[in-house]
Amino acid sequence: IFIFVFKEDIKALLLRIAKITLPGGTEVSTPQSMQSVEEAADIEQPNLDNSIPIQDLPSDLTPQQRQIIEQLIRSHIGTAYLWEYRYLNYFLVRGTQEVLDWFIGLRQPITFAHYDAAWLPVVPSANERQARYNAIQAHHLVQCDATTTGLIQVTPKGREYQVWRGALTCLANSN
What we know:
By secondary structure, the protein is mainly alpha-helical. It has helices at about 1-5, 5-15, 35-40, 65-90, 95-105, 110-120, 125-140, 155-165, 170-175; strands at about 20, 25-30, 140-145, 150-155. About 55% of the residues lie in helices and about 10% in strands. The strands form 2 sheets. Strands 1-2 form a two-stranded antiparallel sheet.
């Protein structure tokens, strides 16, 4: 009866769980969603600079009116960032957030082969390593300079998200 009554709540809880350790040491983990980079490429990357120029305001505004409108617009932009980062906290599983922290901790661009080799002992599945990378790239937290060197680097948005969220203990750095 309990399961029948709370079926939807239990389902929602199980969908949010990233990793479960069962008696006997067995672990079950949820793989990162395989959202393609192409689907998220249509989303325009926002300007993360706090001094975003506000354009196209009517020219007949007084300086005080212009200042109030600009503050209101910046407030809405800040609220949008807050909700986007809350969404990323919900969407990105802990392992994917650890990959982002690892990229940030490197302090230099690297190749995908380097990323893949470094995370092989921690995440044996090549599909899972690719999914974690795709998730942070799809949300513009890292970018790959495919035109010249093929190096992956963290974007300003990725750094700002990590500061907002706080750093996690990274598994790859502990090996």
